Amino acid sequence: METPGADISKFMALQGTPRRQSMEGFDPDYVDIVDYIVRVTHRIWEEKGIGLIYDTYAHNVVVHTTEGTSYGREKVVADTAIGQAAFSDLYSPAQDVIWTGNDKDGFHTSHRAIYMGTNNGYTAYGPPTHRRVARWVIAHCFVKENRIVEEWLTRDELATVRQLGYDEIELARRMAAREAARGHKNLARNTLGDVDRVLGQTTPPPLPPLGPDFEPESFVRRVLHEVWNWRLLNNLQEYYWPNYEGYASTNRELYGLGDLAGYILSLIAAFPDLVMKVDWVGYLGDARKGYRVAVRWVIQGTHLGPGHYGDPSGKRIKLLGNTHYFIKDGKILKEWTLFDEFALLKQIYWPD
Is 88 helix (H, G, I), strand (E, B) or coil? Predict the structure, then answer.
């Protein structure tokens, strides 16, 4: 099913209908992998079927976030219960599911949704504020035989913190100190080597070549390496349409190449040695309809420059991110990029 704009009622109506793709090992209720992702999420979060996690997550599931990596299904169950207690009227309409793979080797799915609800219960940040919150989430899952085996999760957590009315810097300091006192480790501080954007007096690695025919994965890898690692922002017009629209963490809305360049420069200025590495790319579509592309990446850097994260701290940072692109006629027209900016603040204000 084509996800963008699809109402949940269209997915619920698929129950009991014939399969649309091979789904060996999956519950017969689901007609294709998009249906599986959308309806499982709806049933767990909106219908509050938390116990369905036992049927849809592997017992040894691995979940990656910017906060770190967790292991085991019981952690997923506990975190879901906490989230539902904090926002009991939560609902999460799907915006897109970009997928690759098959039922033999497993599916990769990148699911973009917006979670909305009223904070009428306790969160990790404090007591109920009774404020409405809306935040973006992108979850990249590896799924096989009806079980999510591994997940890379990015949530717009700083947007949540701001909408709840907290002072983000003070809260980041307090939570980092509390977690450090409990023996938690700062993910970025566990690294051993230097940030390897360049080695010594050399340049970043060569730009990957583009073939004679447009291919979305090689195009996206080239763009991200050229813009973020080589800092060649003068080439943005070659890869993005002038009426580009971008949606980024903490409810940033970008329009046009000037906004895009300003956003990129704000991060590079704060982290001058910033390097981006692409871990996975998947896409759907064709040249006529355009391509929907999902990218999972990691950014590393050192907080050595000015910006809205506060005075330079010299702290190492490491961010997990997910991006969705819509590419039309060989250039990027729309983008949704998400990383946990509150987790970034905690890395910066982690006690020495």
Answer: coil
Q: Which fold has domain 187-348?
A: Nuclear Transport Factor 2; Chain: A, (3.10.450)
* The model scores a pTM over 0.85: yes
- CA pseudo-torsion sign 253, 268, 237, 210: negative
Bridge partners (DSSP) listed for residue 91: 116
CB neighbour class for 190 (10 Å; exposed up to 12, middle 13-18, buried from 19): exposed
Q: How many CB atoms lie within 10 A of CB 6?
A: 17
Q: Closest Cα partner for 147 from 258, 281, 46, 55?
A: 55
Q: With left for phi above 0 and alpha for psi between -120 and 50, is residue 206 left, alpha or beta?
A: beta
The pLDDT of residue 191: 63
Distance CA 242, CA 282 (A): 25
How many angstroms separate the CA atoms of 302 and 318, rounded?
Answer: 9
For the stretch 251-262, pLDDT in tens is 999 999 999 999
Cα distance between the two ends of the chain: 50
Give CA–CA dist 259/257, Å, rounded.
5
pLDDT of residue 10: 77
- CA-to-CA distance for 144 and 302, rounded, in angstroms? 37
Q: Class of 8-166 per CATH?
A: alpha beta
Instruction: List, for the chain, all residue ranges whose pLDDT scores fall below the cut of 70.
Output: 1-6, 187-192
Q: Where in the chain is the domain with CATH 3.10.450.50?
A: 8-166, 187-348
Reference 293, options 227, 239, 340; nearest CA is 239
Q: Where are the alpha helices (DSSP H) in the chain?
A: 8-12, 33-41, 53-56, 73-86, 157-164, 168-181, 216-224, 236-239, 256-270, 341-348
Residue 29 CB: number of other CB atoms within 10 A? 15
